[in-house]
Design brief:
It is elongated, with a radius of gyration of 26 Å. Helices cover 68% and strands 0% of the residues. The protein folds into two domains: 36 residues; 66 residues. It is mainly alpha-helical and 145 residues long.
Amino acid sequence: MKDPTSRNARIRYTATGAIAALAAVGAIAGTVALAAPPPAKTRDCAAAASREATKAPGSGAPDKTSAPQPPVDDQPFLGAVQQLVANGAITPAQGQIVDREIQAGRLDTDTLAAAGFTPTQLQAVQQALGNVKRALAHNVNGTSK
């Protein structure tokens, strides 16, 4: 006669092993998927997909691809950088570098580090710009009084 306790233990260990293996495969697949470059689209396929997604034939709907995007207001971020320069946290030359990054629409800490920013300066820049983002999000959400 077989012991039911050992059978249950075998099932539990097998299930635990299967879940662990599934989690490991998922972690590896997720990492590979995130690291892979996006699939390349040909110009014709991308244009056709864009037209189909934005305007149905005969619907009279405006073409979303031709609608101008609202201008981006970088001034709050540029003001925060000026404040860092005024406080002596970064030099005026470093402030110009950060300004160019903001106007380009991105802020790459590797680029700033290569330009001579210290870790303390990088942290000050990230904190100042993060505070501006939070303030703007706070105002957009309508929670300001």
